[in-house]
Amino acid sequence: MRRKMVAGNWKMHGTGASVDELTKSLKVIDFPVNIDVAVFPPSLYIGKVVEALRGTPVAVGAQNVARQPEQGALTGEIASSQLVDAGCTLVLVGHSERRQVLGESDGELCLKFAAAQQAGLVPVLCIGETLQQREAGETLAVVGQQLTSIIDALGIEVLKQAVIAYEPVWAIGTGLTATPEQAQEVHAAIRAQLAARNAEVAQGARLLYGGSVKAANAADLFSMPDIDGGLIGGASLNADEFGAICRAAGN
After folding, report:
1. Fewer CB within 10 Å, N- or C-terminus of the chain?
2. Mean pLDDT of 152-158
């Protein structure tokens, strides 16, 4: 049985004061014991969040990682070994904002995925299609290729120590959400793609949905057979809302 997971991506939000307030509120939430919970703060506040949430069930991850695991001459980047040293256990790889806005290629993301795992981090691989691609009927082809790029470069076995998050680009921060049925269709296709390579990996892989998930729609999304939780954006900046989403996953 796959454990549900709810992860909050804080993106480029927060000040020292607001992060203190948010972590203070998270510390008093009674999270369900049958799910995994994580937050991904901006890198500037990782140390603060790790310290504030010490002793709670909430894991801390990073939003980005350098393409090389070791420290060195790569100004402005953070090595996966440094993230581990700071207390991170997970890292986002391939979020659509980094693919679409910052131009990160599949090849670049393979390097980041490998660097994360080399240091012991669990990559949360984000995949998803744009609205134009969905309207053109290309959703499964686009998502499949994004996943294939990792499998072909690194092997199917690497996904045993990873999480996959399907995030349709058109549903991120827009208020639009894939229906539970739309999300399930893509999640089922992802699992089938994995099963064609390795049935054990497919069965164990945790597939999260992301894209305007809120307390109001979380239960319906998480009830789908191949949706194992959520990668939450804006709603994760509100502790009460995030806690309600976690309870939906726990139920």
Report:
1. N
2. 98
pLDDT band at 60, cuts 50/70/90?
A: very high
Rounded Cα gap, residues 119 and 236, in angstroms:
27
Helix, strand or coil for residue 40?
A: strand
Query: pLDDT tens across 167-181, in order?
Result: 999 888 787 778 999
Query: Which tokens sit at 250?
Result: 């726990």
Q: Which residue among 95, 97, 129, 241 is the active-site one?
A: 95
Task: Please answer whether residues 165 and 208 qualify as being in contact, where contact means their C-beta atoms are separated by less than 8 angstroms.
Answer: yes
Which domains can be identified in the chain, with CATH numbers? 4-250 (3.20.20.70)
Is-catalytic flag, 200? no
Round to whole Å and give the CA distance between 75 and 158.
28
Q: Would you call 69 exposed, middle or buried from its count of C-beta atoms within 10 A (0-12, 13-18, 19+)?
A: buried
Q: Tell me if residue 13 is catalytic.
A: no
Amino acid at 105: S
Catalytic residue among 97, 104, 129, 167: 167
Query: What's the pLDDT at 84?
Result: 98
CB 39 within 8 A of CB 61: yes
